[in-house]
Amino acid sequence: MLSLFLSSSSSTTSAVLSLSTKLHSSTTKRALSYIFTSTTMSINLQSHAFAGNPLRSKTPKTGDPLSPTQALETLKIRILEATHFPSSPNFKVLPFRKGRPLASSLDGTGDSSSPNWHLGWLALADFKDLLAKLGTEINGDSLVYLGSQAEDDVVYWAIDVSEEAKLVPELGSLRFSFVELRMLMVATDWADSNAMGQLAVAGHARALLEWHSTSNFCGRCGEKTIPKEAGRRKQCSSDLCKQRIYPRVDPVVIMLVIDRENDCALLSRQSRFVPRMWSCLAGFIEPGESLEEAVKRETWEETGIEVGEVVYHSSQPWPVGPSSIPCQLMVGFFAYAKSFEINVDKEELEDAKWHSREDVKKALLAAEYKKAQKTAAVKVEQMCKGVEKTQSFSGDFNVESGELAPMFFPGPFAIAHHLISTWAFQDETTDAGQAHLKQPSGSFSNL
């Protein structure tokens, strides 16, 4: 019996909201604050978007009913049960379709101009019944362990249902929708610690599921792989091989190149960028290369600028890339230029230019990131209501008083934004009496 789905719209909203509140109660101290004045903008972020996952703080030890191995054994038993009885632990499932997590929009719970989205967690029994209604069965190996909340006695799982097309209208009738993670990233209210926690959970889940879909065969012998440890790793099925395979992480350096003498920063454009958008240089790390070496090599290859000193800033998981690269880890740096003349590699970049600190400040102050966030949140709400509408939020980033700004940068959900804004406003204070924004040494207090 679909107890969650058969409830009224308002009770469904309450159920999902209650679950969201419980899931993220441990993250209430995490906050992102924006302070705008006529002369400065300060951004304080305890952790980047997609970091700070509340389900990954600690993995229970083997034997604990909430641990991956023990929870999987219990899960398999629950799947085989013909009836549903309240039991411990409680299992919640987050379906994904083609890399998109299930989400719902709970309008009316706050500011109506900025609806809140929530992940579409389903009780295991409800999810099982829904699939049975469509003539489909599930098995334990198709679910991936995400983590647990000991205080709530809940274990959370993700599952890829891309092959179950009939699920889309069934869930759509109940105001659920499979929404692109990048859309949710823009729609997330960065001042809402619960929403930021949900985004981190969704990012972790997508990365794991995409990795599973691209690691079906052993890279050593070519035999099929089988999931182990509740989907946290895989193993070759060949008794002669038994190669262990772990989730893939792709490190990427992203750097703001700075010319100290002329007080300007090097920003670039790629052909895929929307008009007037500029960002930092970035590139994948090569085997046998240090992070600092990668910063220097990528800067030289793409712009012909020679870099000397390289200073670490922070890092950010980035699970919104293509499915072939399931989880990038963006490692951010400030890089100080030793040369000034630019020679752009047109195969890599459309353009690269030096921009003065004052011009960067003006662009940051003109950008309406909050407006773009609200626009995306409305789009998510429409999708969950079954209203599909083609809408672009990129223009909302760079509009002030109806006039297009000459340039704008990625929003606060991206590490590039924080590299740029930290440099632009370093050594300045706000009316709130905050400390000077010094050159970062890896501490998030400087973001």
TrEMBL record:
Its EC number is 3.6.1.22. One of its GO terms (cellular component) is peroxisome. It is an enzyme of class 3 (hydrolase). One of its GO terms (molecular function) is metal ion binding. It catalyses: a 5'-end NAD(+)-phospho-ribonucleoside in mRNA + H2O = a 5'-end phospho-adenosine-phospho-ribonucleoside in mRNA + beta-nicotinamide D-ribonucleotide + 2 H(+). SUPFAM superfamilies: Nudix. Belongs to the Nudix hydrolase family. NudC subfamily. This is NAD(+) diphosphatase. The lineage of its organism: Eukaryota, Viridiplantae, Streptophyta, Embryophyta, Tracheophyta. The gene is LOC115724953.
